[in-house]
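tool_call: predict_structure(chain=1)
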Amino acid sequence: MAFLHWSATTDGPTHPTACLPSGGATPDVIYNDVWYKWTAEETGAVEFSTCNKANFDTKIAVYGPDAACPGTDENILACSEDGPGCANFESVLVFDAEEGKEYLLRIGGWGNGAPGESGVGSFSLLPFLPANAPANDNCFGAIELDLGASDSTLVLFSTAGARTSQPEHDPQSCFDVGERFVYNDIWYTWTSTFTGFLEWSNCGTSNFDSRMAVYVATEENECSIAVDSLVGCSDDGLDINDNNCGSFTSRAIFPVQAGRVYKFRLGGWSPADTGDGTFTVKKIYTASTTSQ
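tool_result:
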């Protein structure tokens, strides 16, 4: 998102000492600041950055959750002056957001005194991915599935480095008792080309105790995943002959509707469960065998 600081005034609290560059030999004011409100669409780490996106030395801060304007020292979550790798001394920070909560984003300039720096630029607000995280670690990075002319696909996957997303689930008929999360999960997305039933399975083809969940997306926000949008899930699955899937892997069969978007979430039964393998997604012509 683009921003302009040329006519902005300075308000809000001073910049916390923890945000100053090494040595702290700079004023604690965020000069010529502008403010934005943002509501989190899912729970997780978020990166707020002006790094290499502005023509002046920036300072940024974030306040919340549900902080009143202006932010205060009590509700500041994170702040940054000179971010690593930022060519013009711009800023980058990471904070933990909670789905449905509102946050205040503050962008201003550095200065040895008033009036401080100002200019133009843009900022980004993106899910934060650690260096070792898979690209589809969260819903926003979900990988598109293509079933092709055969209405089926085989996918190689790994959950190594993945973090645990929301939502959590109360006990479900398709989840065994115990943990409420799909741990260390990765995401896929698919737009249905038919109305009928779909099978998603890693039954016997993965090396860890898996869980899978499928959600129908809303038209307004595909990654605002509500518990009641669950259309299918599996914990310890059964194969086509009703035998237990090896290594406590999973198999789900669920209804789909042409034109609707579905989000596929694959992870582990516990925080220790992660690994790799393959899964299949394919059209089926009967729902008579639904594996849990």
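agent: The longest strand covers residues 31-39. Proceeding to next step.
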